[in-house]
Amino acid sequence: MRTQVVIIGGGPAGLLLSHLLYLEGIESVILERRTRQYVLSRIRAGVLEWGSVEILRQAGLSGRMDREGIVHQGSMVTWTGGDRFLIDTQKYAGRELMVYGQTQLTEDLYAARDAAGGTIIDEAADVMPHDVTTDTPWVTFEKNGETHRIDCDFVAGCDGYHGVSRTVIPDSVLRTYEKVYPTGWLGLLSETPPYEYLVYSRSERGFALCSMRNPMLSRYYVQVPLTDTLDDWSDDRFWTELKARYPSDIADAIVTGPSIEKSIAPLRSFVAEPMRYGNLFLAGDSAHIVPPTGAKGLNLAVSDAWYLSRGLASHFNAGSDDLLDAYSDTALRRVWASTRLSWWLTVLLHRFDDEDEIDRRLKISELEYIASSTNALASLAEQYAGLPL
Q1: Is 91 a catalytic residue?
Q2: How distant, in Å, are the alpha carbons of 69, 158, 290 from that of 161?
Q3: Residue 136 phi/psi, 5° resolution?
Q4: Is residue 350 flagged as an active site residue?
Q5: Alpha carbons 363 and 77: distance in angstroms, whole number
Q6: Which of 206, 335, 355, 384 is 20 to 30 Å apart from 166, CA to CA?
Q7: Are 47 and 41 in contact (CB under 8 A)?
Q8: pLDDT 10s per residue in the chain (389 long)?
Q9: pTM exceeding 0.85
Q10: Which of 92, 292, 307, 315 is flagged as catalytic?
Q11: Exactly one of 72, 91, 148, 179 is catalytic; which is it?
Q12: If you ran DSSP here, which 8-state letter would residue 24 be given?
């Protein structure tokens, strides 16, 4: 086979990149090691920055999002005693946010690629890029017991933290930075009307989050030890613990119901740089992971795909490599800014086992300061809304 760009990974970053390249007249093939059903079963983030919304609209991908997504002006933060403030992104940053689940966005992306006749090869095993430092890279994979080869001009590694793409970069070139947090998030999805705001809570019992997917689909989280399993958490225990971590007025307004999905996710900050090695480019979770506290993971996947598609379009259609050469540095500036915000919010809002009394008092003092300072609220809102592309 022959194509211009081989995209390894069929998640949001890979699918969006493929569609953006299609709009520029550039051919691509997506190799995904899982089935489409598996990819669509993954429950992930659900908050889009307005810059991400505009990229999706310009790409003709926003029809369902504009119908079903929930526009809101920011998220609320509450802590012990019931004090609270609103991260008002509209007031302080002039930008709203869109609540729209990653599963729904992935469905939209698959539909767009299918409608355009895009090539997506599912269940592609043992994918491996070759000769990525030359002008003639190629990728091999196994499918139905046979080995296949695709020759290409560029390889885009969108295959996540555990994917093969990053491993192709030699240790002498690749630098990685990682922080693993000693806790996890237990998430529950229910077909219940959500609370009116996204609400972060720091309580003496641990962190909690009220989130939403649509007017009849809610997503809630509680901080749990990494040693816990789903068998430890019945629905009744989850709802009781969630409500115990909120002030009574919020707890009383939370509508409970049977779970339709539960999962536990560890928290990690991870950055790999550079995001380019020869004619191999990393995008999305293959290059970076952020704790979900800052709602940045999906947005970084969107911005990476946009930066990379812009560079590839300039290469193929204008004969210029300036944007491709700047891709890694441009993407990493946004990655590090998002990683910093996500780290800071995670540390501020979680109760860790090694947290002593001075840590607790300092965090409460910082929350009180943010609530009392217009400048602090504006700074937080600007970052939470997403820095300009």
Answers
A1: no
A2: 28, 9, 11
A3: -130, 65
A4: no
A5: 13
A6: 384
A7: no
A8: 999 999 999 999 999 999 999 999 999 999 999 999 999 888 777 899 999 999 999 999 999 999 999 999 899 999 988 999 999 999 999 999 999 989 999 999 999 999 999 999 999 999 999 999 999 999 999 999 999 999 999 999 999 999 999 999 999 999 999 999 999 999 999 999 999 999 999 999 999 999 988 888 899 999 999 999 999 999 999 999 999 999 999 999 999 999 999 999 999 999 999 999 999 999 999 999 999 999 999 999 999 999 999 999 999 999 999 999 999 999 999 999 999 999 999 999 999 999 999 999 999 999 999 999 999 999 999 999 998 89
A9: yes
A10: 292
A11: 72
A12: T
346's tokens: 């995670």
The amino acid at residue 82 is G
Q: What is the DSSP string of 129-168?
A: EE-TTSSS-EEEEEETTEEEEEE-SEEEE-S-TTSSGGGG
Cβ contact 283:304 at 8 Å: yes
Report the run of H or E that residue 320 belongs to, with start and end.
none
Q: What are the backbone dihedrals phi and psi of residue 153, each rounded to the nearest 5 degrees, phi first?
A: -95, -35
Q: Does 195 qualify as catalytic in the annotation?
A: no
Catalytic option among 195, 221, 307, 384: 384
CA 220 – CA 238 distance, rounded (Å): 9
Which residues in the chain belong to E strands, given as ranges?
Answer: 5-8, 28-31, 47-49, 70-72, 74-79, 84-88, 97-99, 119-121, 125-130, 138-143, 146-151, 154-157, 175-190, 198-203, 206-214, 217-224, 259-273, 276-277, 280-282, 288-289
**Catalytic annotation, pick one of 243, 288, 296, 315:** 296
The two three-digit tokens of residue 212, written as one number: 């939403």
Catalytic annotation present for 277:
no
Q: What are the tokens at 46?
A: 């659900």
Q: Which is the catalytic residue, given 92, 100, 181, 200?
A: 200
Tokens of 323: 């944007």
Amino acid (1-letter code) at residue 243: K
Q: Which domains does the chain show, CATH number per domain?
A: 5-70+101-178+268-347 (3.50.50.60), 181-266+351-385 (3.30.9.10)
Question: What whole-number distance in Å separates Cα of residue 158 and Cα of residue 10?
Answer: 7
